[in-house]
Amino acid sequence: MIEKLGSYSLNFFQEVGEAIVLFFESLRTIDQFRFARSRRRLYRQLLLIGHESIPMVCILGGFVGMVITLQMGFQLQKVASERFIGAIVTLTLTKELAPVFTAYLLAGKVGAAITAEIGTMKVNQEIDALRSLGIDPIRFLTLPRILSGILVTPVLVLFANIVGILAGSILSYIYLGVSFEVYRGSIVEMVIFADVAEGLIKGAVFGGLICLIGCHQGFKTSEGAEGVGKFTTRAVVIAFIVILIFDYFLSSFMLR
To answer: What's the confidence (pLDDT) of residue 115?
Structure first.
């Protein structure tokens, strides 16, 4: 059991190290984004990752906001402090739950799709064909996805925040009798811009990590169609773990 745990941990950190190397290799090619063709690939990824994820992110944010309102509201009623429910919902969403849950959603949707797409290209030898044509696969495939993840994920987190706060205000009025003015007043009183910015920064980091891990696992794919499924699953699992690890360190750093 200990040997298996050690082997799994070693493999995990090896995967993370290889992904970091891929990230810095991608940064080397960023100067080539001055070309219009490269920017078009970036715009396409922004559309695929961002626009198609908005409905799911809004649904996620709304229900997370309602769950927080239900769980915390009835507890606060016991100490006659339900007037603070607006601030609690907002802080919980913006600083922690919205960025993490949005990242999990993107890891399952976008990260898996990236790995499957690049993995299929790998097993079909399309990546080798790009190299034979003098096209750098990292610049062509990896960099647009990483940049789009960094740029789009904070916007999706913001959507989740807005919908979650609005859903929480409606539910707090219906079930707790807290007026919209009191709900809004507690937010204005207790929430500052730095709280919102913390979640947006986390979103940018998580988005880049998800796309980076998806690309890395795609480039490692082997064993044909079976390998595509295997490495796609691995990408999602690694992304989930890495998100929690980075969430801890980012939270620790920002609390100082």
So the answer is: 93
Count of positions (residues) in the chain: 256
* Whole-prediction pTM: 0.90
Residue 178 near residue 74 (C-beta atoms within 8 A): no
Structure tokens at 198: 């913390």
Report how far residue 250's alpha carbon sits from residue 256's, in angstroms, rounded to the nearest whole number: 10
Using CA atoms, how far residue 100 sits from 20, 64, 156, 164, in Å, is: 21, 11, 11, 14
| Dihedral angle, C-alpha 67, 70, 75, 77, nearest 10 ° | 150
Q: In terms of Cα–Cα distance, which of 256, 254, 222 is closest to 99?
A: 254
d(CA 86, CA 122): 49
Q: How many folded domains does the chain comprise?
A: 1
Q: What is the pLDDT of residues 149-194, one digit of tens each?
A: 999 999 999 999 999 999 999 998 888 888 899 899 989 989 899 9
Q: Domain range for residue 133?
A: 2-254
* CA end-to-end span of the chain: 38
- Residue 157 contacts residue 53 (beta carbons within 8 Å): no
Rounded Cα–Cα distance for residues 36 and 177 (Å): 55
